[in-house]
Design a protein that fits this description.
alpha+beta; 43% strand; globular; 3-stranded antiparallel beta sheet; single chain; PH-domain like
């Protein structure tokens, strides 16, 4: 992934399922997809410019470990980014990944909600 001039990575640890991850920069939110079986390469699947986002909120289903980021855009459209962690992405804690996955899902979702909202607020202040 190439960064634009004056672009910095804010968050790059949002694994959203087996072959996707989120990357938040100070300019955009990137949904990346893993390509390749033996050598992994991350390619941009979707790109959302932060200036186009009005607000973001999340929903978490702790029973299914399904999490969603809902992005309300300034043009009144909404984008939905769903993800579910899988067992292989979780370290086993006390032999019980069933209770660990919803907590990790909530942690990642909250981290991105806070990060995106902080970047949106910074952009709103500088205008």
């Amino acid at each position: 992934m190439e960064l634009e001039k004056d672009e910095n990575v804010i968050l790059d640890d949002g694994y959203w399922g087996s072959n996707k991850k989120l990357v938040l920069t100070n300019k955009r939110l990137l949904v990346q997809k893993r390509k390749g079986n033996f050598t992994s390469k991350w390619e941009i699947e979707n790109e959302i410019i932060l200036d186009e986002i009005e607000e973001v909120y999340g929903m978490i289903d702790v029973f299914t470990s399904l999490s969603s980021l809902i992005l309300k855009l300034k043009n009144k459209e909404q984008l939905l980014i769903n993800f579910r962690l899988i067992d292989s992405q979780m370290p086993e804690l006390a032999g019980d990944t069933g209770t660990c996955i919803p907590l990790k899902t909530k942690e990642i979702t909250n981290r991105y909600l806070i990060g995106i909202n902080n970047q949106i607020q910074k952009k709103g202040v500088s205008c």
